[in-house]
């Protein structure tokens, strides 16, 4: 009944078109000024944390292994939304107040660090031990072998899952709206609250997320194709 009214009522169609057009630019600005920069920053920080955590997990030092395991267990075992709420709403109760942007950066970075560390650890473990032995045979130390031989190969292995993680992060940043950070979905909430067309505005936001993710998927495919040239078959 609701849909039939839309198709048969020119005034309603015009109103919906006006809402779509007027909300498009603010949503796109929210994506490119807030959502994508937040994604890039948190993914970069998370990747650094992931490499450090993965190396700690692979370390022969038990204390480092335990610390890394606890960190990964806590982050993977609790919802991202709860983590954001603890950082933004919980920490002020003990005198630590962090603004929405930095709360989002901390929350997403810690989350990405934990999940991506398992990807990187698996990629490193996938490199044959013969590669280590070959590096040692020409006089390389463990650190040199890791940096010059193992990590470059592990990078090629980890690119596909890390790309998927990055695309997933684009969508997960919508959770930052719950801690009042004005990214794209927060913009959609503000617009919908003004015109009460929640389905229309949220669907438009979803389509923008989809277009961004499809574009990134093409980039991912291109990168994977280029990397395949350097993989022996």
Summarize it:
By secondary structure, the chain is mainly α.
Please characterize this protein's 3D structure.
With 233 residues, the protein is mainly alpha-helical. Helices cover 82% and strands 0% of the residues. It contains 9 helices and no strands. The chain is elongated. The protein starts with a helix and ends in a 5-residue tail after the last helix.
Structural class: mainly alpha
What form results from the Cα inertia axes? elongated
Q: Low-confidence stretches at least 5 residues in length (pLDDT < 50)?
A: none
> What fraction of residues sit in β-strands?
under 5%
Tell me about the largest β-sheet. Answer: none
Chain-averaged pLDDT: 87
Helix fraction? over 70%
Note the topology.
Blueprint (H helix, E strand, L loop, with lengths): L1 H7 L1 H49 L3 H15 L3 H11 L9 H26 L3 H9 L4 H31 L11 H12 L2 H31 L5
What key phrases describe this protein's structure?
mainly alpha; 233 residues
